[in-house]
Amino acid sequence: MEKTEIGVIGFAFGVDCNIISNVYVGKTATDKGVPIFTQKDLFIENPTSTVDYIEEKEDPPPTLRIAREAVKWAMKLGIKELWVAAARPHLWRCVRDLKYAIKEAGVQIQVRVCDEIGMYPKKEWFCSNSTQKRTRSPKDWWPREIILRLMPMFIYKRIAG
After folding, report:
1. Which residue in 4, 105, 137, 151 has its CB near the most CB atoms, within 10 A?
2. H or E stretch at 159
3. Phi, psi at residue 31, to the nearest 5°?
4. What structural domains and CATH numbers belong to the chain?
């Protein structure tokens, strides 16, 4: 395995890899030129480094489970800093779940957000052709997302981990 201090975790937003949100997130993750940990629905074209994928038992896997597996991956590679590539509507929860997984593992890994995510238009994150209904529009996304954000972590980790 490649030895590096920095890695990227890419969180897909919707299903499949060809929807625009997953193309944006995949491009952001790939442009860093460091190892990437992601899921099958992220579009990774011509990676300049290694790409490792979470083993998917559910389709798609919960955000917290992706974060936990990414922390294990980072520990195995000796990564000390993880950059998050995620759709803007999903970003807050991705960062929160990743920080929680790091704390749970008892390791020292810094978390940063890929700045490039901010350059994509807000209206393009939701894709009507996503097969995951909740990522098709803001009205499909926000009711569930607000509940997940406000839910106490001891309950969230049971349903999302």
Report:
1. 4
2. helix 153-160
3. -65, -15
4. 6-160 (3.40.50)
